[in-house]
Amino acid sequence: MKRWTTFVAAAAMAIAASTTAFAARTDLVLGMVLEPPHLDPTAGAAAAIREVVYANVFEGLTRIGPSGEVLPALAESWTVSDDGKVYTFKLHSGVKFHDGSDFGADDVKFSLDRARAADSTNAQKGLFEAIDTVEVVDPTTVKVTLKHPQGAFLYNMGWGDAVIVSPKSADTNKEKPIGTGPFKFDSWARGSSIKLAKSDSYWGEPVQLDKAEFRIIPDASAALPALLSGDVQAFPNMPVGDSLPQIQADPRFKVVIGSTEGETILTMNNKKPPFDNLKVRQAISRALDRQAIIDGASTGLGTPIGSHFSPANKDYIDLTGTYPHDIAKAKELLKEAGLENGFKTTLKLPPPTYARDGGQVIASELREIGIDAEIIPLEWADWLKQVFTDKDYDLTIVSHVEPNDIGIYARKDYYFNYDSPAFDKVMRDLDLTTDETKRSELYGEAQKILAQDAPVGFLFELPKIGVWDAKIEGLWENAPIPANDLTKVKWVD
Amino acid sequence: MTAYLLNRLITGLATLLVASLVVFAVLEVLPGDPARLMLGMNATPDAVEALREQMGLNQPVPLRYLDWIGGMLSLDLGKSYTYSVPVLDLVKERVAVSLPLAVIALVLSVAIAIPVGAFAAQRRGRAGDTLSMGAAQIGVAVPNFWFALILIYIFAVWLRLVPAGGFPGWSAGVWPALKALILPAIALALPQAAILARVTRSSLVEVLGEDFIRTARAKGLPFDRVLWRHALRNALIPVVTIVGLQFSFLLAGTIIIENVFYLPGLGRLIFQAITQRDLIVVESVVMLLVASVIVVNLLVDLSYAVVDPRLRAR
């Protein structure tokens, strides 16, 4: 009997010892609101695709780091020719795709050529437009020749849309993504969850997590109980609503309010009277009380912006003072435009909360200067058709979430209907400039032109509200690109 | 009976055909381009065009309709635009959640409603009746997602007996899967049970006033026996009708509960497919639901004959 108790005690101690030694958990369940339509980032725009696979499953030549910086990924180094047109990438050797096939220069050529082909369905085909030829020099060297120098080329190659895929699996990546990343795709229960598992054959620094699961939780009211019950341990982008103070007060959780690349704007149809009149646009800009809009549209979280640039970007300049909130001045401007009695217009709103709630605030602010904006709520598909494609609108609110996308104001036939030769020139110069200081200057100039011209009402940068277990480290604070990079994530005690 | 069934079969097929035309036409005029939705605001026009071509959206409308109908007849429901997997697989996965959920909820609802309704009818006008029908009134009035949230906070957050939501799949084992369905089934069943209890009560009250009940009592049968054996059976027709309607609702109309418990059910599939203009999924799932409603209605009609032998002659 005595021997039994000794044995049990010893066993208990052994178990206790082993659990302290291996106490750190290696699994993680993350909540996400929208389910990705599929998992191929080279064939769809949905941010949810990148939130699962970027940096985890798929890698590109370069990658974007947590502060928006360009880092080497599959390319360990590169050289740029003096005229800025030839990029020679040296690739890592010994890299394998998750299906066991070898990665090499051929795959880079295949992926880039595929993305810019005539029948390409890449959502960011524009990223590859400057590429003239892609040549395989040897199995670990690729030479990319551009039609003209492109300052942002290395950044562009870090987008999720530019990841390297294998010719063998390119067509099936939507359902079964095969990449070179530190996690391999495990399973997808549609409508429910997507599971990733650590890849043992990863070429780089191994990850700490063995398993990661993305659970789809579409309803905001379900997000909080999922977190409180421990079913989900991290919500990198949580729909918190009014429950934020409750979570902030709970020591079990860490709440991290970061920034995104989502410039939320009140778009005006620049070719449609009276919005073709600069004075009217200035009047509207002055009617906007950004803080009140942030309070109403985003529960007080988010940074006011005065131009189309992310405050997290190093080249950002604060232009919120260009047309500060001033009702009297706004009315005066309307009078100068010959509209002292105001006018009737429409405000078409897509489904996100920031648009629907922000729209209410903005409509009431516009009413103060005599503009009667009728609110028309639209579904996404309908919004894309009416507003974005057919340009049949007066005013709308939307967040432009693509990183570094100030260039959209130079796009011909874009739904803004904005046309500024001065701005277009700055954008052309930017494309031809690789010198960092010069680029910063040009970005500054571009921001100023937009702030002055007020082609849209600049509102605020969408916040990223991250909530996770206080014992988790390594999740991104900001979202310089849509991603949930799990490569550095670990549990600590 | 055979003539009756044949008649029903032909009506059912005609209904399906009309429904297919209506569904297809409605989705055809619905604004929005699935290709543009998939590729987003930054996509170049030629990339959107290439995807439209790939999805087969550039084919003429009648051809697409015939393609779809032809596919359905050979059980090939096509491939989802968004998920790019066969629609049949998607539907199977979702039915594996929605069907058990609907059945459990319905069984619960009946198991609660019939005894409560009978209890109330038995004590008509007395405290028991008032109390149980008062509770039923609350059950009808309170929205089920609110029930759901209360249940989540008690059983998942506080007691941690069941998960707060999600569905592990039947491959994870029967018990974990059932555990994930318990709370949603209760949340769905309570309001349904409340309606059903009220119907049972009023139907029973009516039957209890009939002559044959008095005769049965006069023969000396105990009241309980009269109630359960004679009255209830005769009161079942309206109850069965409501049960049939409830089942059709539970199969696809449970999107709110599916959202609160983030269950991958049919309701959410169809909602998501509509917002993403995954037309082929919407069309096929709607057809499936129309077919299931037709079948359920047929079963309800047939069960009338079981409940009431007089109807068999017709």
Coarse morphology of chain B: globular
CATH topology of the largest domain in chain B: MetI-like fold
For this structure, what is the CATH homologous superfamily of the largest domain in chain A? Dipeptide-binding Protein, Domain 3
> What would CATH call the architecture of the largest domain in chain B?
Orthogonal Bundle
CATH architecture of the largest domain in chain A: Roll
Order of SSEs of chain B: HHHHHHHHHHHHH
Radius of gyration of chain B (Å): 24 Å
List low-pLDDT spans of chain B: none
Total of helices of chain B: 13
Structure description:
Chain B: Belongs to the binding-protein-dependent transport system permease family. The complex is a heterodimer of chains A (493) and B (314). Chain A has 493 residues and is an alpha+beta fold. In chain A, helix 7 (278-287) runs antiparallel to helix 9 and helix 8 (290-297) runs antiparallel to helix 10 (353-368). The two termini of chain A are 38 Å apart. Chain A is built from 13 helices and 19 strands. Chain A folds into 3 domains: 27-33 and 176-258 and 464-491, 3-Layer(aba) Sandwich (D-Maltodextrin-Binding Protein, domain 2); 59-168, Dipeptide-binding Protein, domain 1 (Alpha-Beta Complex), CATH 3.90.76; 262-463, Dipeptide-binding Protein, Domain 3 (Dipeptide-binding Protein, domain 3), CATH 3.10.105.10. In chain A, the strands form 5 sheets. In chain A, strands 11, 12, 13, 14, 15, 16 and 17 form a 7-stranded mixed beta sheet that branches. A 4-stranded mixed beta sheet of chain A has the order 1-10-9-8, with no helix packed on it. Chain B has 314 residues and is an all-alpha fold. Chain B is 77% helix and 0% strand. Chain B has helices at 2-29, 34-39, 45-55, 61-73, 87-122, 127-141, 144-158, 174-208, 211-218, 223-252, 255-260, 266-275, 279-307. The model of chain B has no long low-confidence stretch (mean pLDDT 88). Chains A and B meet through helix 5 and helix 11 of A and helix 2, helix 3, helix 5, helix 7 and helix 12 of B.
